[in-house]
Amino acid sequence: MFEKNRILQMLEQNQIPLGMQCFTGDPILIEIMGLTGFDWVMLDSEHSGNNPRAMEPLIRAAECVGLVPFVRVTQATDEADIHRALEAGAKGIFLPEIDSVEDVKRAAEAAFYPPKGNRGICPAVRAAHYNDQTFVDYTTWNNAEIMLVPMVENPNALADLEAICAHPDVHMIVFATGDLGFSIGEGMGMLTGPKVSTAYKGEIYLVTDTDETLLKPGDTAIVKGVNHAWSNKSDKPCMIIGVMVHAHPWPKDQYPAEGL
């Protein structure tokens, strides 16, 4: 009756879910995102006119096209916002401007039912299928499948990053380079600021038959059908996201072609 959280399943299988933050209140755009092939959507109530309870039509639209819906609440420790977003059907909560793992713990208290958390019960909500007969099943599902996604946006959160990532209900985080850069005096530099780029670690070499190119956080490479490999020459892990685009072979009678 209550489906497993597909994003959790993908992460358990070492797959990278693709998603997008969305500020619109228009369900049509949410449907388009799902039909495009995204895995999840973050519906914003921090910087938009949407409030968590008004998310229901957007969450319905997401579910109709296979998008896993998340909601960014106005504050990470606002229990009422967390309750309303989850009762509307969100499968996870984005937690803005956290300062430490203590903020994550407070959010978990609000998101999960006893004995895991301290959330009050109400069977007459959409997420519970408006059914008191299956409400215990819903609370069990909720405590196993709801995700908390901390947003690292200030130096305090960065200093407590290991503890935040070690929290058992944190399976992914958002590294918000805009807010972080602004909070430490680097303005809108994003990943070009030296302090932010240092915090956002990881680099890798793109190796081709003719040369090597060092890629750092925020860099993009387009590989146009040539032999290539990836080489991490550091002692730090590096994650890359790749998008493969189908292309037809270039006709052999048209070689050499300009740009190839």
**Helix-strand pattern:** HEHEHEHEHHEHHEHHEEE
| Unreliable residue runs | none
CATH 4th-level superfamily of the largest domain: Phosphoenolpyruvate-binding domains
Q: Major beta sheet, specifics?
A: 6 strands, parallel
Please name the defining characteristics of this protein.
single chain; 260 residues; alpha/beta; TIM Barrel; 2 domains; six-stranded parallel beta sheet; three-stranded antiparallel beta sheet
Précis, in short:
With 260 residues, this protein is of the alpha/beta class. The chain has helices at 6-12, 27-36, 56-64, 79-88, 101-111, 135-145, 155-159, 161-166, 177-183, 194-199; strands at residues 19-22, 40-44, 68-72, 92-95, 147-152, 174-175, 204-208, 212-215, 228-231. The protein is globular and about 70 Å long.
Strand and helix layout:
Elements: H1 6-12, E1 19-22, H2 27-36, E2 40-44, H3 56-64, E3 68-72, H4 79-88, E4 92-95, H5 101-111, H6 135-145, E5 147-152, H7 155-159, H8 161-166, E6 174-175, H9 177-183, H10 194-199, E7 204-208, E8 212-215, E9 228-231
Parallel strand pairs: 1-2, 2-3, 3-4, 4-5, 5-6
Antiparallel strand pairs: 7-8, 7-9
Helix pairs in contact: 2-3, 4-5
Structural features, described:
The protein has 260 residues and is an alpha/beta fold. It has 2 domains: 6-199, Phosphoenolpyruvate-binding domains (TIM Barrel); 202-260, no CATH class. It is 32% helix and 15% strand. The chain has 10 helices and 9 strands. It has helices spanning 6-12, 27-36, 56-64, 79-88, 101-111, 135-145, 155-159, 161-166, 177-183, 194-199; strands at residues 19-22, 40-44, 68-72, 92-95, 147-152, 174-175, 204-208, 212-215, 228-231. Strand 2, helix 3 (56-64) and strand 3 (68-72) form a beta-alpha-beta unit. The chain is globular. The chain starts with 5 loop residues before the first helix and ends in a 29-residue tail after the last strand. The mean pLDDT is 84.
